[in-house]
Design brief:
With 664 residues, this protein is of the alpha/beta class. Helices cover 33% and strands 16% of the residues. The protein is built from 20 helices and 25 strands. A 5-stranded parallel sheet has the order 3-2-1-7-21, with helices on one face. The chain has a 5-stranded parallel sheet with strand order 9-18-10-11-14, with no helix packed on it. The longest helix is centred in the last third of the chain and has 21 residues. The radius of gyration is 26 Å and the shape is globular. The model has no long low-confidence stretch (mean pLDDT 93). InterPro entries: FAD-bind_Monooxygenase_sf, FAD/NAD-bd_sf, FAD/NAD-binding_dom.
């Protein structure tokens, strides 16, 4: 991970020199200290560099936005860069590849210009990639050969689980319905599909990618990253592709799961001691209820299952939906179609995003690829805004609300930014501003990073109407107010059905199904475990989203899973199950705090955050109202008092090994 390509000569070497000369001197110093192992450099340059940091903001803003800063003395910057040049060209192994925490504290303080909160210090250390091993339990036993783990899904979560299970010595198999790795990124191929989290941090911390070509990579580039990780860690032979899991049943007597699947049209049965579902919440496309939709003569395409055989060139197209995928599709196809009518049920908060289509500068890529540790320190810069206190962003500040009528300091600030942004695009069109301005807090629905949507709306062949699709005829769609819009093609960007495992026939203790357990709404303990389903881990279960990107969430959950499995091995457990009391305590605490959030106090906002039960009632189950740094600490190790466990017959926990004194 921290290797460096040979410096070379000629054009290749010249480009490295140019990249070093363009590198921020403070960041250059970070790399130099680790390569050389010279801690005194930190003290030597501290006074000259402190207060001259570049503040990089990652969360929902330009990730290279920075405040005005005093320039570094050119002579000092030259000294640092020249020393770094010599160190890199030597191509010798880094003297300090691993940082101790005191050194990380001081170096991060100089780089960021402030001390990270204590709760975020270890979190930043890991997620910036300065450690690849966060295990807490000192393993006493090697996992036995007959201890089997099955992971369902080879998307981002499943790949993460496979890497760490392999490193921890567990025998595992991944069952994947598709023929390649990638999950949603394999199936979401609509025009404009892109990651809406900056590429610097949307990757595994143990395998940062220095070679992103864009700040917000397109789907194919992210898929190629997952392919590289799969091959680097030798996972492909452990993945059984084309295997559709139908369900699983807990065998109480044998303490194993029997997994039922179909491959090549033939039923299969697999057995395991621990079953890990890594399928994610976004499953089948969500089709709106539209009367007589089958009468429409043209193609009907959902963004989640795009039909690339349909040529949109010169067509009149109606696009329904202005969420994340909707704005990406609109921006991507507007110049190809003859006319685009966008049907917006509700406006969204859209945030400035200058780097939506921007490439990563060649010199930055060279620096991250060729200079050890630069990719980690840049990653830390992008993580910084997530590591601080976020008071008043998602949870309501009642005192602030009483004084201002708003929601919270950060939430109101973001809302004002969004309002200013839409007005700046349509300064002479108050009707359009009103049409595009939500009347609810930011985060009541997922905020959208602008990928050029407002500029798309200005195109002469593009229009947007407020309404809801309710009916169709042979040549048109009809909105709720009776408006009839003729079109050749109907595109639906209307999201997914969030099953949370209810699409599988999973049966736990006493044969109770997961679907029945989740009536009226899905729930979990710590976003992963469900009472009544022993030895079952559901990654990305309810109460685990919206506070960090998918890479961060999955790494934290996988860490917890490995700790849980090692506890089973060390204490000779045949089964674990979280108690109903612990589950209720967790759910009650989360629900109580959710009540004070923009996700629940959402005004008129609708959307996928809210699960609709059989009783018609809606409940927020996707989010967890806790700072992600707290979650990181919560998931360091299982709280054993929250579990009922069964020990293997005749077995005892592994004892500490005696250490008799040796003599000569």
């Amino acid at each position: 991970m921290h290797g460096v390509k040979p410096a070379g000569t000629g054009a290749d070497g010249d480009m490295l020199d140019v990249a070093i000369d363009a590198l921020d001197p403070i960041l250059a110093l970070m790399a130099l200290i680790q390569i050389s192992g010279d801690r005194t450099l930190l003290h030597r340059y501290w006074d000259a560099l402190d207060g001259r940091q570049e503040s990089v903001v990652e969360a929902f803003r330009d990730i290279d936005a920075h405040d005005a800063r005093a320039p570094v003395d050119p002579a000092i910057a030259r000294d640092i860069r020249d020393a770094l040049r010599v160190a890199v060209r030597s191509a010798r192994p880094a003297v300090m590849p691993q940082l101790d925490m005191p050194m990380f504290r001081r170096m991060s303080r100089l780089l960021l210009g402030r001390d990270l909160p204590e709760m975020s210090m270890a979190v930043a250390f890991q997620h910036a990639g300065f450690t690849t091993d966060t295990r807490v339990r000192a393993a006493k036993q090697v996992p036995p050969a007959d201890f089997k783990v099955i992971v369902v899904g080879a998307g981002m979560m499943g790949i993460n689980a496979a890497v760490k299970l392999q490193q921890a010595g567990f025998d595992y198999t991944v069952l994947e319905a598709l023929d390649k790795v990638g999950g949603n990124w394999l199936t979401n191929t609509y025009p404009g599909a892109a990651v809406d989290t900056p590429s610097r941090v949307y990757s595994f911390s143990f395998e940062p990618n220095a070679s992103w070509t864009q700040f917000y990579p397109r789907g194919p580039e992210f898929l190629s990253y997952l392919d590289r990780v799969t091959d680097k860690y030798g996972l492909r032979d452990r993945i059984r592709f084309g295997t559709w899991v139908e369900g699983a049943e807990w065998d109480e007597a044998r303490k194993i799961w029997t997994v039922k699947a179909v491959r090549d049209g033939k039923p299969e049965t697999h057995e395991c001691h621990v079953l890990i579902m890594a399928v994610g919440p976004n499953n089948n496309p969500n089709y709106p209820a539209v009367k007589n939709l089958d009468r429409f003569k043209g193609p009907v395409i959902h963004s989640a299952v795009w039909d690339h055989s349909v040529d949109l060139s010169g067509k009149k197209v109606v696009l329904v939906g202005t969420g994340c995928s909707g704005v990406q599709v609109a921006t991507a196809i507007a110049d190809r179609v003859s006319e685009l009518v966008i049907v917006q049920r509700q406006p969204e908060h859209i945030i400035p995003n200058p780097q939506a289509h921007a490439p990563v500068a060649e010199l930055e890529r060279i620096a991250m690829e060729r200079i050890p540790f630069v990719v980690n320190w840049k990653r830390l810069q992008s993580l910084e805004s997530q590591m601080g206190d976020m008071h008043g962003m998602v949870l309501k500040d009642e005192e602030h609300a009483a004084k201002t009528g708003g929601f919270g300091p950060i939430n109101d600030g973001m809302r004002m930014m969004c309002d200013h942004y839409v007005r700046s695009h349509f300064p002479d069109d108050p009707a359009m501003v009103e049409l595009l301005t939500p009347n609810f807090p930011v985060f009541a629905k997922r905020p959208i990073l602008d990928c050029g949507f407002y500029d798309t709306l200005k195109k002469p062949n593009v229009s947007i109407v407020r309404g809801e699709l309710v009916e169709a005829d042979e040549q048109a769609v009809i909105l709720s107010d009776g408006t009839r819009v003729e079109c050749d093609v109907l595109l639906l960007s209307t999201g997914y059905e969030l099953h949370f495992g209810r699409q599988f026939d999973i049966r736990g203790t006493g044969g109770k199904s997961l679907k029945d357990a989740f009536d009226p709404h899905p729930f979990s303990y710590e976003g992963m475990l469900i009472n009544g389903f022993p030895n079952f881990v559901f990654m990305g279960a309810p109460y685990s989203y919206l506070v960090a990107n998918h890479a961060v969430v999955s790494e934290q959950q996988v860490h917890y899973i490995v700790e849980l499995l090692q506890w089973m091995v060390d204490d000779q457990l045949s089964a674990f199950d979280v108690t109903p009391e612990a589950t209720r305590a967790f759910v009650d605490d989360v629900d109580t705090n959710l009540a004070n959030s923009a996700w629940v106090q959402c005004g008129s906002a609708h959307g996928y955050y809210r699960d609709k039960g059989a009783d018609g009632q809606k409940k927020v189950i996707l989010a967890i109202p806790r700072h992600n740094s707290r979650i990181w600490h919560d998931l360091r190790a299982p709280r054993q008092a929250d579990f009922t466990v069964i020990r293997r017959d005749g077995a005892a926990p592994a004892a500490d090994r005696p250490m008799p004194m040796l003599t000569i």
